[in-house]
Write a structure and sequence with these properties.
The complex is a heterodimer of chains A (about 325) and B (about 60). Chain A is built from twelve helices and eight strands. In chain A, about 70% of the residues lie in helices and about 10% in strands. Chain A has helices at about 5-15, 45-60, 65-75, 80-100, 110-135, 150-180, 190-200, 220-235, 240-250, 255-280, 285-310, 310-335; strands at about 1-5, 25, 30-35, 40, 140, 145-150, 205-210, 215. Chain A has one domain. In chain A, helix 2 (about 45-60) runs antiparallel to helix 3, helix 4 crosses helix 11 and helix 6 (about 150-180) runs antiparallel to helix 12. With about 60 residues, chain B is mostly helical. Chain B has helices spanning about 5-10, 25-55. Chain B has one domain. The chains are: A alpha+beta (about 325), B mainly alpha (about 60). The interface between A and B is large, with 50 and 33 residues.
Chain lengths: ~325, ~60
C-alpha cells in the first residue's frame, strides 16, 4: 500500500523543478517519484521505520528527532524542511503523552518554564526562518555536481549533531567495556561552561523560589531557552540535551523539578514550533499521525526490551548505526 | 472522503500557481490539534494497559 505526500511533493517540485518533468517514474529506497513530480511512499515502510525509531528511542532513552528527520530524507526523500516540521509536530504528541503520564507526580516551576519559553519562542522562530532562507537559497553548482543549499546545510548540521552524539555513546560504551568492575559510575561533573554561566551577574537578577534559586541573571535563563529553541526550530529536535544540563548545572534547579519544567517548556515550544512551521507549509499531516502512533508503540517495546537486555556492546551498535547514517547521508549528497 | 484524502485536500496551498505556499486554516488547526489528541488517547491507552498488567510502563522518550 502506498501514500502520496502532498506537502513533500509540493516542496520537492518547488526545490527541484526538473523532477516534475520525468520521462519515467524514479524509484528510491521506499519511495517513487511520479512523472508529475509527486512523491509516493510505502505505507508499510513508514510504519516499520516509525516502529524502529521508537524502539531505539525507548531502548536507549534518547529523543528520536535527530534520527527520524535524516531518515525521512534518506529513506523516503522527504525534503528536509518537511522532515523538520513533521518531526516537530510529532513532538507535540509525545510531549502531551509524557505530560499526562507524569500527571500530579511532576514538579513544575511554571515561572522558570515561562521565562525559558520567552527565549525559546525567538529561537524557534529564528530556526524556522533559517529553514525558509535555505529553501529560498536555490542550488549550488560545482561542475556537474548540483545540490540544493537546504540539502547541503541540513546534511552537514545533522552529520555534526549525530557525529557528536555517536562519539559520546561510543566513548561511554568503550569505558564500560574496559572497566566493567569499577562499580557505579562517578557522579556527573558540571561542564566548565556551566560554572562560567552561573557567575554571570547581568541585571535584572531574578529569584526562583520553587526551584530554590535565590538570584540568577534573567538573560542566562532566556539565553538557555533561545539556544534550545533555535535547535528545535532549525532541526526539529527537542533541545532537551541543552535544556536539562543547563537547568541542573547552570541554574542549580533540583533534578526532579528540572524534569517537570523541561517537559512543560517543551510542550509550549513544540506547539509554537508547529504553529510557525505549519504556517510555512512544512508539516506533512499524514506522516505526523503514522509516525506518532508507530513511534509510541515502538518506544514502549524498546523500553520493555531494555529492561531485559542491557550491555555496552548494544550501545556500540547504536553508535555504529549513527555513523552508518552519517555515511549514507554524505553518499546521498554526492550522488 | 477518507482521512488521507481529506488531509491531502487541506494540505494544498491556498495561494495560486506560482505563488508561495499559503496555509489553509484547517491545515494549521489540524497540525496543532491532531498530535495533542493522539497524545491524549495514547496516554489513556497506556494507563489502561498498566492497570491490566499491574506495572508501570515507560513514560516515553522526548
Amino acid at each position: 500500500m502506498s501514500l502520496t505526500l502532498p506537502i513533500a511533493s509540493y516542496w520537492q517540485k518547488a526545490l527541484h523543478p526538473e523532477l516534475a518533468k520525468l520521462a519515467e517514474p524514479l524509484q528510491g529506497w521506499f519511495y517513487t517519484i511520479q512523472t508529475n513530480g509527486d512523491l509516493v511512499v510505502s505505507l508499510a515502510a513508514l510504519v516499520l521505520v516509525g516502529l524502529v525509531v521508537g524502539l531505539l528511542t525507548g531502548f536507549y532513552g534518547v529523543g528520536g528527532g535527530f534520527l527520524m528527520t535524516p531518515w525521512l530524507n534518506l529513506l523516503f526523500n522527504v525534503p528536509y524542511n518537511v522532515a523538520v516540521g513533521t518531526d516537530l509536530t510529532q513532538m507535540v504528541g509525545t510531549a502531551t503523552m509524557a505530560k499526562v503520564r507524569q500527571g500530579g507526580a511532576g514538579y513544575v516551576d511554571y515561572k522558570l518554564g515561562l521565562l525559558i519559553f520567552s527565549g525559546s519562542i525567538f529561537g524557534v522562530e529564528l530556526g524556522a526562518r533559517l529553514v525558509e532562507m535555505l529553501k529560498a537559497g536555490g542550488s549550488l553548482s560545482l561542475g556537474s555536481w548540483k545540490i540544493s543549499l537546504l540539502q547541503l546545510v541540513m546534511t552537514l548540521l545533522y552529520g555534526l549533531l549525530m557525529g557528536w552524539i555517536a562519539s559520546l555513546v561510543y566513548k561511554e560504551a568503550k569505558a564500560a567495556l574496559q572497566a566493567p568492575s569499577m562499580g557505579a559510575a562517578p557522579a556527573a561533573m558540571a561542564p566548565p561552561v556551566a560554572n562560567r554561566l552561573r557567575t554571570v551577574n547581568l541585571r535584572p537578577l531574578i529569584s526562583l523560589p520553587v526551584s530554590g534559586v535565590e538570584a540568577i541573571s534573567l538573560w542566562v535563563v532566556v539565553g538557555v531557552g533561545f539556544m534550545s529553541g533555535l535547535l528545535t526550530g532549525l532541526l526539529g529536535v527537542s533541545g532537551s540535551f541543552i535544556r536539562m544540563p543547563a537547568l541542573i548545572y547552570v541554574l542549580g534547579v533540583p533534578t526532579v523539578v528540572s524534569i517537570g519544567t523541561n517537559l512543560f517548556e517543551l510542550l509550549l515550544t513544540s506547539l509554537y514550533g508547529t504553529l510557525t512551521h505549519s504556517l510555512k507549509g512544512n508539516v506533512e499531516l499524514a506522516l505526523v499521525i503514522i509516525l506518532l502512533i508507530a513511534g509510541t508503540t515502538g518506544s514502549q517495546l524498546g523500553a520493555a526490551l531494555q529492561r531485559k537486555f542491557t550491555h555496552p556492546r548494544l550501545q556500540l551498535a547504536f553508535a555504529g548505526l549513527m555513523f552508518l547514517t552519517i555515511g549514507l547521508m554524505l553518499l546521498k549528497l554526492f550522488r | 472522503m477518507g482521512l488521507w484524502q481529506w488531509l491531502a485536500v487541506i494540505s494544498q496551498s491556498a495561494g495560486g500557481t506560482g505563488q508561495s505556499f499559503t496555509a489553509q486554516w484547517q491545515y494549521v488547526v489540524t497540525a496543532l490539534v491532531a498530535p495533542v489528541l493522539i497524545g491524549l488517547v495514547g496516554a489513556g491507552i497506556i494507563i489502561i494497559v498498566e492497570k491490566i498488567l499491574g506495572f508501570r510502563l515507560s513514560g516515553g522518550s522526548i
